Amino acid sequence: MTVTARTAEPRVGAAAPDFTLPSTAGTDITLSTFRGRAHVLVAFFPLAFTSTCTAENCAFSEDYDAFERAGTTVLPVSVDSVPTLREYRAKYGMRQELLSDFRREVSRAYGVLLEDRFYSKRAYFLVDRQGTLRWSHIEAELGARREDTELLRRIATL
Prior knowledge:
The structure is a single chain. This protein is an alpha/beta fold. It has a single domain, classed as Glutaredoxin (3-Layer(aba) Sandwich). It is 27% helix and 23% strand. It has five helices and nine strands, in the order βββααβαβαββββα. The chain has helices at 51-62, 64-69, 82-92, 105-109, 148-156; strands at residues 20-22, 28-30, 39-44, 72-78, 99-100, 113-114, 119-120, 123-127, 133-138. The longest helix has 12 residues, at 51-62. It is globular and about 35 Å long. The N and C termini lie far apart (29 Å).
């Protein structure tokens, strides 16, 4: 796994920290490979099989086509292992692949790791086709989440 070293939340207007993580597809996914092709919504979620995370990821799956029409790939990231994420994805029939930040390096690079709990905050980072961070939001409460309609409105401003 490679990641640009960083410990604080990246700045809007700056290049998004690049990373490569294993996915439920069985391949590694690198953020920078989307440059010139698609916007990316990097969506950190605390843990698979929890109520808010499940509602959020099922909504991403239900709205998969809307994100695709908006030229955006959603990359949900959690600290769960790939086998756990595969089981989670299969149980709920999710369309999007899920990424495993098992070593917590990407969560740290984006400034969202809760060190005392060893999982990430719920957070959203919208990266444009040039690899620039255009919007970010970190939830104050783990049980809170952004609705897809809001996320799609943000994407529409790119």
